[in-house]
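Support request from a user on the community tier.

User writes: "When I paste my structure tokens into the form, the page sometimes reloads and wipes my input. The last time it worked, I copied everything first. Here is what I submitted, just in case something in the input itself triggers the reload:"
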């Protein structure tokens, strides 16, 4: 009884003292009404006490200090950061909550837990890491991981020391491939082409004046995809790009395994390089600006794949095809962000050049 009173008192105190910052207005998202509770300090502390307990106590090891929304895709998903005091820790800790409308993503939580416990974060010698998964709050469609330090690789690959970093990044994604943690879903080149066709059709609807050009780009991508005659197969990240790699000294943290699946390892490196090329178009007005870095990434990854017994020519072809498909997909992505719309036609031009 006494414990319950203490717990209730703590929840009430939390509700009065915690600051909440919601610059996205997610509580107005009619398709994710659960988010209103995910921003309520009393509810969150009560859920922490229920789901993130000490092994032998009735309360959580975390005491809520502040809440802020950092990302929101209306009707689909949201990122919420919870600053907390943790028992035995002298500084504030941040837990990153990932919520989605269709329910908590248990598969990604458990995948990340397996990775973290098996060579990607639990031991001091693990230099390629994933954030530590902390727990699941099913009532709020939420799972939590510790926020990790570091700078996005997109910033560092554009500066000095990039060549050494390329080798580390290639080795990091190769280690994920070699971990071979099973996935239930498989992603093929046909799936990738289907997604690309859908996205380019959306752009065509917005810009009918580009219709013929977009159709030719898709046909060219489809033709190039046939060069992958013997796709390799392992378990892949599928959303691997520079913003999903944080660099913190000797450590690389790999983020966002939501699309993890069985597939061609060349997709991961092709996707990464395609994003770098798009970054060069957008920030340097020159698609060749990071050419040396892109080649170093491809060479390092291919060398590691060869050590694993894969065909060098097959992997190189796969990387190059998926790089092209990623650039073509960026035609659509550029229309989703006002600050990128000025580069849509530049990306169309680039894809056309690479297909000639």
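"...and here is what came back when it finally went through:"
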């Amino acid at each position: 009884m006494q414990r319950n009173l203490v717990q209730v008192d703590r929840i009430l105190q939390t509700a009065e003292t915690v600051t909440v910052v919601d610059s996205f207005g997610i509580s107005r998202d009619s398709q994710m009404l659960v988010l209103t509770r995910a921003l309520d300090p009393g509810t969150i502390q009560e859920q922490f006490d229920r789901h993130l307990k000490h092994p032998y106590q009735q309360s959580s090891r975390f005491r809520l200090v502040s809440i802020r929304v950092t990302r929101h895709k209306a009707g689909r998903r949201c990122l919420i950061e919870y600053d907390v005091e943790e028992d035995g820790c002298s500084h504030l800790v941040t837990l990153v909550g990932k919520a989605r409308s269709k329910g908590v993503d248990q598969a990604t939580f458990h995948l990340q837990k397996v990775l973290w416990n098996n060579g990607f974060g639990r031991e001091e010698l693990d230099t390629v890491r994933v954030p530590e998964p902390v727990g699941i709050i099913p009532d709020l469609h939420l799972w939590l991981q510790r926020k990790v330090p570091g700078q996005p690789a997109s910033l560092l690959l554009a500066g000095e020391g990039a060549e050494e970093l390329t080798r580390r990044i290639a080795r990091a994604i190769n280690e994920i491939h070699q971990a071979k943690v099973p996935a239930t879903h498989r992603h093929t080149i046909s799936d990738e082409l289907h997604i690309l066709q859908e996205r380019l059709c959306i752009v065509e609807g917005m810009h009918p004046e580009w219709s013929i050009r977009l159709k030719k780009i898709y046909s060219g991508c489809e033709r190039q995809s046939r060069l992958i005659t013997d796709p390799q197969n392992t378990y892949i990240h599928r959303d691997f790009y520079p913003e999903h790699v944080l660099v913190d000294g000797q450590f690389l943290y790999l983020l966002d395994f939501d699309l993890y699946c069985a597939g061609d390892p060349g997709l991961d490196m092709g996707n990464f390089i395609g994003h770098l090329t798009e970054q060069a178009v957008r920030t340097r007005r020159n698609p060749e600006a990071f050419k040396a870095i892109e080649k170093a990434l491809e060479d390092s990854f291919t060398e590691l794949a060869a050590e694993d017994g894969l065909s060098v020519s097959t992997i190189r072809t796969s990387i190059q095809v998926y790089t092209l498909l990623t650039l073509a997909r960026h035609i659509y992505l550029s229309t989703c962000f006002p600050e990128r719309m000025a580069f849509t036609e530049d990306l169309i031009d680039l894809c056309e050049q690479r297909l000639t």
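Agent notes: The reload is a front-end session timeout and is unrelated to the input. Residues 2-146 form one domain. The radius of gyration is 22 Å. Escalated to web team.
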